[in-house]
Amino acid sequence: MSVRQNVAGRGVAGGDERLANVSPLRRLLVRPEMGAVAGAIGVWVVFAIRAGDRGFVSMRGTANYLEVAAQLGILAVAVALLMIGGEFDLSVGSIIGACGMITALLAAEEGWNLGFSIAASFLFALLIGVFNGFLVLRTGLPSFIVTLGTLLIIRGITIGVTRNVTGRTVIGGLNDVPGYEGARSVFANNLRVGGADFSVSILWWLGVAAVATWVLLRTSFGNWIFGVGGNLQAARNVGVPVSLVKIALFMSTAAAAWLVSTIQVLDAKSADVVRGGGAEFTAIIAAVIGGTLLTGGYGSAIGAVFGALIYGMVRQGIVFSGVDPGWEDAVLGAMLVVAVIVNRYIRTRAMEARS
Amino acid sequence: MSAMAPPLLEVQEVSKYFGSVIALKDISMSVNAGEVMCLLGDNGAGKSTLIKIFSGVHPPSEGLFLVEGKEVRFTSPRDALNAGIATVYQDLAMIPLMSISRNFFLGSEPTIGWGPFRRFNLEFADRVTREELAKMGIQVRDTAQPVGTLSGGERQSVAIARAVYLGAKVLILDEPTAALGVKEAGVVLRYIAQARARGLGVIFITHNVHHAYPIGDRFTLLNRGRSYGTFSKSEVSREEVVGMMAGGEELEELSHELDEFAHTDRLVAARMAEASRELSADAGTMPSGPQLTAPASKVEQR
């Protein structure tokens, strides 16, 4: 046995020597998020030139686009994990609206402490996640269709119930309900850095991204996410609890939607049934720009962070430049197409035999 | 291995029905430690159904399934894995976009740390993957490279090394050489021999006798859901195995048919040549269209 280990030990040493031949630059370049990092730098440079004198590069300008990026980023990171796991969740958009409305209804109409109503909407989000997961697993249908269904169902019920109860579609005045200050300090505070107010949602965004990256790259669960997304049957054959992984991922996207909703509600002091409209697609766009494969099994949370950052910079950069905001979609669409092409190139390089 | 030790894995008269379809009927076979049992059969013979029973995907409809002499009833692939039965599927063995070491430990990740900080021990995974592959004679440059960069034979070999490391007692290989070139298939066969030398029981499923015969100790032949029986290598020749696999008479019939075809082909060719000669002779006086089809259909009728 010891002899065998010695042999193996020498094998390892030999392998390690050869390992040094793979250049660190090459290793960095084939990471899924590299395209988005380069893209973010490029976009920043473009707007720094075009709108630098109008405040894009100032602390206030930075705080401005980071806040936009943060709300999308929280969602995009969770969506990226789900997409790596091989599924889509389009219902997140309507979960944002529904969670906000549940929080507002319980607090403003039922007189609940805001903390409790936020907890209640969190519970609701988790249940929707479980429901989505079960529906996808039991029917075996594409999650794109299933969650498109739940997107419409949740949106419709939110509007219907809210109109029924209040006769309106917006509930305001949340700053008067008990527990508002406490909740606001957690979800919608501003931190003064360098003379500008930075939204605390940026910290949530970075926190969510850090946890997601840790889970994805450093835990068994993360390995299972890659496994179920890369090849469901193969993962099942080696004993990965496939259903558990998928349901947990659907729960995490729903929870991310709840977090975004809570931040928005506390920031605006009101809830609106149409909140989060279109967020399901911008989140997917950010994840894809960040190098996540639509077909699953490949991607990164950090990539989604940079995808969201690009989105925030483009959106606010256009405003700073004084260009008609209508151009925003065109720029984002072009970024998306370029990102997909670049990412495919990177992936092809990664898959090449490294001889 | 004493003669008294029960086989690592054994089925006795198992049958499997899917509705009214009889996929398997009264199959008995076994594999012992340090033995390669080849499961041979043509497409549709029931090989896949049988390995799905072994690997816990389907329970058998009838019959006994024993692991080390004790009856078992698996409800999931996990049960089979826990009993030491590892199955390596031809095309589903590995996930191409994941790294070699992540693939190696997928579903059995080694962890380090405590509570919420318990994490996938990647350093350990990389080291063990490299060591285990080295033991099987595969030198990988970088265990972080995606499995998709490996050749088909290497992927199968990694999957075999993985099963061996994770404590498999019985290794089931589903057509591991089917999509491989001659040289690559040889590499995989060598790893099968190594697994046997380490005392595993190997069930090697294939329809290629030339891969099965050199490595196999015993052969079980399936045909249309039934077993022709199990033969040890000393009892049968390669040609006899080929004969049984294809269904001897059928093969003979086929070769007659092929002769027949060749004969008719020559006949047709001769007549066509004749017809075209006639045609070219008449070409000056008649439109050629209808003429062309007439002799041809005459030939076909005969």
Brief summary:
Chain A has about 350 residues and is mainly α. Chain A contains 15 helices and four strands.
Describe this structure in words.
By secondary structure, chain A is mainly alpha-helical. Chain A has one domain: ABC transporter involved in vitamin B12 uptake, BtuC (Orthogonal Bundle), CATH 1.10.3470. Chain A is built from 15 helices and four strands. In chain A, helix 5 packs parallel to helix 7. The radius of gyration of chain A is 22 Å and the shape is globular. Chain B is built from ten helices and twelve strands. In chain B, helix 5 packs parallel to helix 6, helix 8 crosses helix 9 and helix 9 runs antiparallel to helix 10. The C terminus of chain B is likely disordered. Chains A and B meet through helix 1, helix 10, helix 11 and helix 15 of A and helix 2, strand 8 and helix 4 of B.
Topology:
The complex is a heterodimer of chains A (355) and B (302).
Chain A: H1 2-19, H2 24-29, H3 34-51, H4 59-84, H5 92-109, H6 114-139, H7 143-166, E1 170-171, H8 180-187, E2 190-193, E3 196-199, H9 201-218, H10 220-230, H11 232-237, H12 242-268, E4 271-272, H13 279-289, H14 301-321, H15 327-351
Antiparallel strand pairs in A: 1-4, 2-3
Helix pairs in contact in A: 3-14, 3-15, 4-9, 4-10, 4-12, 4-13, 4-14, 5-6, 5-7, 5-12, 6-12, 8-12, 9-10, 9-14, 13-14, 13-15, 14-15
Chain B: E1 9-18, E2 21-31, E3 35-41, H1 47-54, E4 62-67, E5 70-71, H2 77-82, E6 85-88, H3 100-104, E7 111-112, E8 119-120, H4 122-135, H5 152-165, E9 170-174, H6 182-197, E10 201-206, H7 209-215, E11 218-223, E12 226-232, H8 238-246, H9 248-282, H10 288-301
Parallel strand pairs in B: 3-10, 3-11, 6-9, 9-10
Antiparallel strand pairs in B: 1-2, 1-4, 4-5, 7-8, 11-12
Helix pairs in contact in B: 5-6, 8-9, 9-10
